[in-house]
Write a structure and sequence with these properties.
CATH architecture of the largest domain in chain B: 3-Layer(aba) Sandwich
Radius of gyration of chain B: 32 Å
Radius of gyration of chain A: 19 Å
Strand order of the largest sheet of chain A: 3-2-1-4-6-5
CATH topology of the largest domain in chain A: Rossmann fold
Oligomer: heterodimer
Shape of chain B: elongated
Shape of chain A: globular
CATH class of the largest domain in chain A: Alpha Beta
Helix content of chain A: 25-40%
CATH topology of the largest domain in chain B: Rossmann fold
Distance between the termini of chain A: 30 Å
CATH architecture of the largest domain in chain A: 3-Layer(aba) Sandwich
Number of domains of chain B: 4
Strand content of chain A: 5-15%
Number of helices of chain B: 18
Largest sheet of chain A: 6 strands, mixed
Largest interface: A-B, 56 and 71 residues
CATH class of the largest domain in chain B: Alpha Beta
Strand content of chain B: 25-35%
Number of domains of chain A: 2
CATH superfamily of the largest domain in chain B: P-loop containing nucleotide triphosphate hydrolases
Number of strands of chain B: 28
Helix content of chain B: 25-40%
Largest sheet of chain B: 8 strands, antiparallel
């Protein structure tokens, strides 16, 4: 552990994860099935080795995740043996809310942000781990590792606690919660190189393969199931694509790529000329959109 | 490839955000889509006309972009083939000192920006003092905007000289002055001698790639605060934590502070097996050869260099709350993994961060820094901050709002007496009590003279004895005949009286006994003093509640009559107050109740607690 390039990042993340286990009343790890969650999961396994992970993992299922993600999620939970909680906003299901019929912003708001808040309240979790990294987006760069949320899960930039050294203030009053980001100081390149070094299983969608796609707004959208309505004259074509990030399937675009191994993905990531969130449609909703979503309780 | 964490300091107009934006851009950390966004933002908010405004890459929160100032700490990442970098970009205004301190706390090096046209300013000095206080030893003096002084060598030399003179009193090991222009990119990445042929030193990036933050922690003896006890089942017990200093191998002898227990490292458990050695900075789980009782907040250290423990310190303290710090008020504190209660007993001086002057102060306000004396409510394993950051840094937390209100750094322990390592006692209090099939407790009877304390206490002891319990009674009158016969009834003596009785009771509880104390103990503060000597649940306050008129009517010893005549001074209830307990564990209202019924009530409660344990 001491002589590879990740010992420092890894040790810091493990320290953060253990700090929560030592101080929180009822913690939960948010599990999005993506590459960052996969790294966070491995770090949790390491933090508590040889014991099991002493808290459940929770997936907020919007109903629009790629099918391969759900298969991967259930298999991973079975193989590692952690407790998996899944939650879908019942209001969204009742009203048939989806990204295609209701637009990306409303879908994300109801099926992710609102669902997450409901699930945290339902189970009474006081601390929730998330896989967000500071390098993802400008407003994330100022996020604390232990991000304090007021009652109602609101993030108030001005109410964040100063975070000095490795001393994390985990004391909260009732109704208040904390989101904890153990991967704060990791970059996208770190995540990929660590996945390669540790040989961490990830969803196959990250690897390039021939898949049915349609081109929309200059981006490749995967035709994952029958729910994606095709525009008049639009026919799916087979392209070799892969995903840099995985979100809801019509909202996350793939990139054309030949990278079919971790080595090739790492090489491609290190040489990338666009940011990973470029494939996330919600981030383009206007300047400061991530900041606004966070204030409302988004991760 | 290692990681360098550094902080950039400078005020709004020094071009700090521009410099960082430039570093990100030049090291190819700006992606095309981000560049597109930057172009759009530059037109909308930019201050550079048609040019790209790199500061906009860095100033993240929307309010900042609109006000064009940096109001929080932002962490940025970039890498060269030689190193990974984490930059803490912090605001320069005095009202953001706490943000700067936050960035400085984890940094190994600092880049201090200076506007070449303005030279060394008050704020440069303020930033330097904070950086020095937080233990950063390597500083680059980035003299920016050289283009606006015609790349003048005399201007640069004058700034460097005046800074070095100022910094003599600070604890920097190296200072490297670098002339540059963040806007044009001169001397930021490439060492540049087109415009400044007279400059032979490194570019800023070259300095960042080569500066060697002394890893003083790595050279020191081994220490690791216990962060979490890993106990998945009865067969495994490991102590998890992040190594603060030195290194450890399996087989090494260690000693736990503050208990003083020694053992050997049997294994360093890591994912997938065991590892032979671990070093400072590693998160590990240690399995010890013996069954050692250590918990979160204890420190495992090299047996040859055990970590000291103390409860009173001199420390530097930065106050970070709008609510002023009041000496004497109890705050919560976190030092490594140890949670404790702390109060500031004395402000030695308030440091004027602009001039370095030492000023007298009674309180501390937001962003003020002082050297103070502190008193913790328990022994804290520690090391001076200058030697070991992990064992010397602490935060102060408001007990009501739970906000982080202060950041402190231990200079040294004030009381040497508690530095003596506790003699580790292998037979514990619990073990002694278990052998007697009981839970050791202190039942503290308080009430007016003549309220029935001794009567009930004696009956209770008889009952417990009959049940096979091991007990002992400390009665006010009896103790005053022996142990405390040198004490009178002044307020001072009363406090000392209770202190001694409390300490004796504590030793007896430690021996596993159920101790019954029957003392008037009229003051809440004294009873609290006694309570604080015991572990949670051990101290049971029994309020023998009999009205004064009834006590005086009984007047078994004739003391009330004496006091009424004026023959007895400071008599509780007559000319000295009795402060009734606010929340006693047991409240006995004796009027109309037989003493036997009171005893029944106590015995019943003790049984139910024991079952709940």
């Amino acid at each position: 552990m001491s002589d590879d390039i990740f010992s420092e990042l890894e040790s810091e993340s493990i320290e953060i994860i253990r700090e929560v286990a030592a101080t929180a009343a009822k913690p939960v790890m948010l599990y999005s099935i993506g590459k960052d969650s996969s790294v966070m999961l491995r770090l949790a396994q390491k933090a508590f080795y040889p014991g099991p992970i002493p808290f459940p993992l929770m997936h907020i299922d919007t109903g629009w995740k790629f099918r391969e993600m759900i298969v991967f999620r259930d298999r991973t939970a079975r193989e590692i043996g952690f407790k998996l909680i899944t939650y879908t906003n019942p209001r969204g299901v009742a009203e048939g809310i989806g990204p295609i019929t209701h637009g990306s912003a409303y879908h994300t708001d109801v099926m992710k942000t609102e669902a997450l808040k409901q699930a945290l309240d339902l189970h009474g979790f006081d601390v929730a781990f998330g896989g967000a990294r500071r390098d993802e987006e400008k407003s994330r760069a100022k996020e604390r590792i232990f991000s304090f949320r007021a009652p109602g899960h609101r993030w108030e930039p001005k109410a964040q606690r100063p975070e000095l050294w490795n001393l994390y203030n985990t004391r909260i009053n009732s109704g208040e919660t904390i989101r904890v980001f153990p991967l704060s100081n990791w970059t996208e390149a770190d995540v990929w190189q660590y996945i390669r070094q540790e040989n961490i299983p990830i969803v196959p969608l990250y690897f390039a393969a021939e898949r049915p796609v349609v081109k929309r707004f200059g981006q490749w959208i995967l035709v994952d199931d029958h729910r994606l309505p095709l525009e008049p004259g639009e026919t799916p074509e087979i392209r070799k694509v892969r995903f840099r990030t995985l979100g809801c399937y019509p909202l996350t675009a793939g990139i054309e790529s030949n990278a079919t191994t971790l080595d090739e993905i790492v090489a491609e990531t290190l040489g990338a000329t666009t940011s990973e969130r470029q494939g996330r449609i919600i981030d383009h909703d206007g300047a400061g959109s991530m900041e606004r979503k966070k204030q409302e309780g988004y991760f | 490839m290692d990681t360098l964490r550094f902080i950039t300091c400078g005020s709004v107009d020094d071009g700090k955000s521009t410099l960082i934006g430039r570093l990100l851009y030049e090291t190819k950390l700006i992606f095309e889509d981000q560049l597109e966004a930057l172009k759009a933002d530059s037109k909308k908010f930019g201050t550079q006309g048609e040019r790209l405004d790199f500061a906009l890459l860095v100033d993240g929160l929307q309010a900042e972009r609109e006000q064009k100032i940096t109001i929080d700490v932002a962490y940025r990442f970039f890498a060269t083939p030689r190193r990974r970098f984490i930059v803490a970009d912090t605001p320069g205004h005095e009202q953001y000192t706490r943000n700067m301190a936050t960035g400085a706390s984890t940094a190994q090096a600092a880049v201090l920006l200076i506007d070449a046209r303005k030279g060394v300013l008050t704020q440069t000095k303020r930033h330097s003092r904070i950086v020095s206080m937080f233990g950063i030893r390597h500083v680059a003096l980035a003299v920016n905007k050289m283009d606006l002084v015609q790349w003048s060598r005399p201007v640069f030399d004058e700034i460097e000289l005046s800074y070095r003179r100022f910094a003599e009193d600070l604890s920097f090991e190296t200072i490297t002055a670098i002339p540059l222009s963040a806007l044009d990119g001169h001397n930021v990445v490439e060492a540049e001698n087109g415009a400044m042929p007279w400059y032979r030193g490194p570019s800023l990036l070259q300095w960042l790639e080569t500066v060697e933050p002394q890893k003083r922690e790595a050279q020191q003896p081994f220490s690791m605060p216990v962060q979490w006890v890993n106990r998945p089942n009865l067969d495994f017990r490991g102590f998890s934590g992040r190594i603060g200093s030195g290194s450890i191998k399996s087989g090494d002898s260690v000693r736990v502070s503050p208990s003083g227990v020694s053992s050997r490292v049997k294994e360093i458990a890591v994912w997938g097996g065991a590892q032979a050695e671990a070093v400072a900075g590693d998160s590990v789980t240690l399995i010890l050869a013996d069954e050692v009782d250590a918990s979160r907040g204890d420190v495992i250290a090299a047996a040859s260099h055990p970590v000291e423990a103390a409860d009173q310190f001199e420390a530097d303290l930065l106050w970070m709350s709008e609510h002023v710090m009041l000496p004497g008020r109890p705050y919560a504190a976190l030092i490594h993994s140890k949670a404790a209660s702390v109060s500031i007993t004395h402000i030695k001086y308030h440091l004027d961060i602009n001039t370095g002057a030492h000023l007298a102060a009674k309180t501390l306000s937001l962003n003020e820094i002082a050297t103070v004396n502190l008193s913790f409510d328990r022994a804290i394993p520690f090391a001076p901050y200058a030697e070991n950051k992990r064992l010397g840094a602490f935060i102060v937390i408001d007990k009501l709002t739970h906000e982080t209100v202060g950041a402190g750094m231990i200079r040294f322990a004030l009381r040497r007496a508690v530095n003596v390592h506790w003699q580790a006692l292998e037979v514990s209090k619990t073990a002694r009590a278990e052998m007697k099939h009981q839970r050791a407790r202190c039942l503290w009877f308080t009430g007016l003279s003549g309220s029935g304390k001794s009567t009930i206490a004696n009956l209770l002891e008889k009952r417990l004895h009959a049940d096979g319990k091991h007990t002992y009674i400390l009665d006010g009158d009896n103790v005053r005949h022996g142990l405390n016969r040198d004490l009178g009834f002044t307020e001072e003596d009363r406090v000392e009286n209770i202190r001694r009785v409390g300490e004796v009771a504590k030793l007896l509880v430690d021996a596993g006994l159920i101790v019954i104390v029957a003392f008037i103990s009229p003051y809440r503060a004294e009873r609290q003093l006694a309570r604080d000597l015991f572990d949670t649940g051990e101290f049971v306050e029994v309020f023998v509640d009999t009205p004064l008129e009834e006590c005086e009517r009984r007047d078994v010893k004739g003391l009330y009559a004496k006091a009424r005549r004026g023959d007895l001074k400071n008599f509780t209830g007559i000319d000295s107050d009795y402060e009734a307990p606010m929340a006693p564990e047991i409240h006995l209202k004796t009027l109309g109740t037989r003493p036997e019924s009171c005893v029944d009530e106590i015995v019943h409660l003790l049984r139910s607690w024991r079952q709940a344990d």
